[in-house]
Specification:
It is a single chain. By secondary structure, the chain is α/β, with parallel strands linked by helices. It folds into two domains: 2-229, Aldolase class I (TIM Barrel); 237-303. It has 14 helices and ten strands. The chain has a ten-stranded parallel β-sheet. Helix 6 (141-149) links the parallel strand 7 and strand 8 (157-159). Helix 3 (68-80) runs parallel beside helix 5 (110-123) and helix 11 packs antiparallel against helix 12 (258-272). The protein binds flavin mononucleotide. Flavin mononucleotide is lined by residues 6-9, 11, 33-34, 62, 89, 91-92, 131, 160, 191-194, 215-218. Pfam families: Dus.
């Protein structure tokens, strides 16, 4: 089985990716959080993609947009940086993205999706994969979308089997994923709600043909999850602490203001507190915390 860390905007930048690679080296492929397909890459994105910041990491940049020419412009820049694959995001459910007909919003018109993929796949010097949801409002939309995806030699198709309207609620639509498995002949990756070894076992028992899995929140809650799936003992406090400390150091080197460091780490702790008893208590403390000094004391308390 291949394991991928899901892209998570604001969280899985290079600092976090490196901490996984150093302390939980079980991830086969990483994806950047989505990068807007625009004319020029920002300095922040260039830093996230830089080879020296991703040394032990197999990284695939993810682009979000709705125009083939803009995707291609970005893809050529990625080629210059030495990348060989790119991932296109047709899954982001956020209102601000969808209202611009990007992310899952682009799934509204399968014909347009087909035209875009035709041009990108014809002209892209890089292998192209897609990360998609299964529709906007109705699981029956999948038939038309699937009819588009089957036409293209994608490197792989990553499916998070929820609708845009589902956001992250309810359970993934396993029946739709099962249909996709029958219909799609490029490598298919399952993504969604794998937060424990049991969840992993259920998904792989339901879909024995799957050979790649992407995990997001489950790996943030328990960074040792893939290690456990592979038969290793759960991550101990010392390892979690080292993982955390590397992220803290990386943030201190990168962000100018201490409050930005604390803000970034608060997002991570929203998930990571699930690895600890008394989650609610610590989450409250972390959320309220205002300064780096206060933050360090709370972290000390959590790990002691
Ligand atoms: C805070 C957050 C940020 C996300 N950012 C991205 C992103 O940049 N690109 C993307 O394709 N998906 C993004 N996702 C979706 C995840 O990659 C993943 O598909 C989703 O969380 C379901 O997988 P999981 O149940 O394993 O977490 C994001 C999800 C969350 C919760």
């Amino acid at each position: 089985m291949l394991f991928y860390l899901a892209p998570m905007e604001g969280i899985t930048g290079y600092i976090v990716r490196n901490a996984y690679a150093h302390y939980f080296p079980y991830i086969d492929k990483y994806f950047t959080p989505f990068i807007p397909a625009a004319k020029k890459m920002s300095k922040k994105i260039k830093r996230d993609l830089a080879a020296e910041n991703n040394e032990q990491i197999r990284l695939v940049p993810q682009l979000i947009g709705n125009r083939a020419d803009e995707f291609l412009m970005m893809i050529r820049q990625l080629e210059d940086l030495g990348f060989t694959s790119v991932n296109l995001n047709f899954g982001c459910p956020s209102g601000t993205v969808v209202s611009k007909r990007k992310g899952a919003g682009f799934l509204a018109d399968p014909k347009e999706l087909e035209m875009l993929l035709e041009e990108v796949l014809e002209k892209s010097p890089l292998a192209v994969s897609v990360k998609t949801r299964v529709g906007i409002k109705d699981p029956d939309e999948w038939e038309a979308l699937c009819g588009v995806y089957v036409k293209f030699p994608l490197e792989e198709l990553i499916i998070h089997p929820r609708l845009q309207n589902d956001y992250y609620s309810g359970t993934p639509r396993m029946e739709t994923f099962a249909r996709a498995l029958e219909q799609i002949h490029v490598p298919l990756c399952y993504n969604g709600d794998i937060c424990s070894v049991e969840d992993y076992k259920k998904v792989t028992a339901a879909f024995p043909a799957i050979d790649r899995i992407m995990i997001g929140r489950g790996l943030l809650e328990n960074p040792g999850l893939v290690g456990e799936i592979k038969g290793n003992p759960p991550a101990d406090k010392a390892r979690l602490r080292a993982f955390h400390d590397e992220i803290l150091e990386g943030c201190l080197d990168t962000f100018r203001a201490e409050k930005d460091v604390v803000f970034h780490l608060k997002e991570i702790w929203f998930y990571l507190t699930k690895s600890f008893p008394d989650r609610e208590k610590y989450l409250k403390l972390i959320r309220k915390c205002q300064s780096l000094q206060e933050y360090k004391l709370i972290v000390q308390q959590i790990f002691s």
